[in-house]
């Protein structure tokens, strides 16, 4: 400030944003062990899969209709009765689906995927009891694999850090050329800074606006469009539900949906 001339000081009073006289220092109070514990334990359900009354075949039918074909709990219970002559309530269908999520999360998280070095990231919203919640998707743009899928109540820096950890932890050998393509949301920059400080650096390329106004947007827009299409796919399956009753219920469903996408959904590009 002292080095400014009189003309510059006058200009500063009128247009302070033109002068870089301030900086932001960010110190994280998020500890890595806390993130690891949270990452492994965020899926919760009151239902024990070993104590259900129906057979595994009926359990499989509930999952197939509800997850693979996007039917609501009531529609699933109705089709089980009308087509298969299995009389169970929609609440039972819901409990069965909830019971599976903690079991298959280990498969979803620790399967040896052999991921590429190009990841697309985006967040979309859903409703929990009428309030907006956010799903942070990280998606292998080449292998078409969902690597992060968690629902958060807020779209903030901590949510972005936690979501990116689910992807970074899936690499046995961390690639030096890892690229993450996202929109212009600054919370992704915060995630880059945090993980760089903790030994997991990656490059972030942000695609800005709806038209290619810079070289980065021109080069990486196709990868960004891939995850945008995946968001639309989720909306198609999510629409019959009309929202969730709790954050736990939303995350339980996202485990099922991500598992279906990674292991069961037909994909022509992957044969």
Shape: elongated
State the CATH class of the largest domain: Alpha Beta
Total count of domains: 2
State the helix count.
9
Strand content: 5-15%
* Biggest sheet descriptor: 6 strands, mixed
The CATH topology of the largest domain is what? Answer: Nucleotidyltransferase, domain 5
Order of helices and strands: HHHHHEEEEHEHEHH
Mean pLDDT: 88
Compute the gyration radius: what is it? 22 Å
Number of strand segments:
6
Summing up helix and strand content along with how strands pair, one would put the structural category as alpha/beta
Spatial gap, N to C terminus: 63 Å
Using the 3D structure, state the CATH architecture of the largest domain.
Answer: 2-Layer Sandwich
What level of helicity do the residues show? 40-55%
